[in-house]
Amino acid sequence: MQQSVSRENFEQWMMPTYAPATFVPVRAEGSTLWDQQGKDYIDFAGGIAVNALGHAHPELQQALTQQAAQLWHTGNGYTNEPILRLAKKLIDATFAEKVFFCNSGAEANEAALKLARKYAHDRFDQNKSGIVAFSNAFHGRTLFTVSAGGQPAYSKDFAPLPADIQHAAFNDLASAAALINDRTCAVIVEPIQGEGGVVPAEPAFLRGLRELCDKHQALLIFDEVQSGVGRTGALYAYMHYGVTPDVLTTAKALGGGFPMAAMLTTDNLASVMVVGSHGTTYGGNPLAGAVGGKVLDLINRQEVMDGVEARHRWFIDGVEAINKRLNLFKEVRGMGLLIGCVLSDDFSGKAKQINLVAAEEGVMVLIAGANVVRFAPSLIISEQEVKTGLERFERACEKLVRGLAT
User: Fold this and answer.
1) Residue 3 labelled as part of a binding site
2) Which of 2, 250, 266, 292 sits most deeply, having the most CB atoms within 10 A of its CB?
3) Is 223 annotated as a binding residue?
4) Residue 62 domain-assigned?
């Protein structure tokens, strides 16, 4: 008999690094979840852009269970069929020629930054170690990646931080150009800043970074952990911009809910990572490979990409209709199904409050800082789920505007 548990047990047993919602989800299907009391919620959060095919997708279930009956894990002393097939699918679909698999976006970014340093040291000299990143970025929680992320709130308690990392202003090419020089080994950037407020890069900004990296023989790393795997209406956001990075990191939706990530790069760059230079115990295991392969099969289709654009319009039209009545947001921005609703000055700092009231009304949303409500739902969320979720979101917004939210 299983032990009975509740939300209250979190404070008793779990390290207090999170502040989870007051309810505990126990079951989900599509973009609808149910909690321990049987209350249903429409999921506009998508597990933070992870559940790109919703919950309990039957083909992902089948891929996982079939592989689970064959081979779970061997460690990196061996390779396996599912992960090799997934590597080839990623190579065929992108600029990449080589793939490194790991478990999370932070690990993928850590690998990318290590690759950049090693490439510079091997091909140039030990002094070519500078990394240029951007303010309000987010690249993960390891010490290296949290240092590259330009949000001091996440890094200030863990000093001394890794050295030789500088931050320019996002979408400000002059600011970046002032920092990028011949000692720079890499520039890491999100094509769309996710945690930083759902801010798309301007095309000229990314083109300029590409030119600066070429000029100074630095690697251009695109962090597509949140924007990748169909989220923007292209398999990866770089495809919208026509700017090809040297290294791309991908995670979140790649496993459709199963923890996995990858770093993609070229033959030339990958060649410096020789046996023993990097690794991870679980990265590229057969279960992840089987699920990730099926995720890519299902998402990398034109009908899905077209569907993302249609759903983008459903959300934008719905939020704008709400805003016309309530005047709560001063801007709605983003690409595809990564959408940020920026609060007006009168409601500054109240994104978390909307998040909480929305849950009371039966819809799950995200925040991206104190002033942005973020949506990152399933790429195949149904029109009825969007309609129902937006109705619930409107009730939550109305409560906030009228001062009824507790």
Assistant:
1) no
2) 292
3) yes
4) no
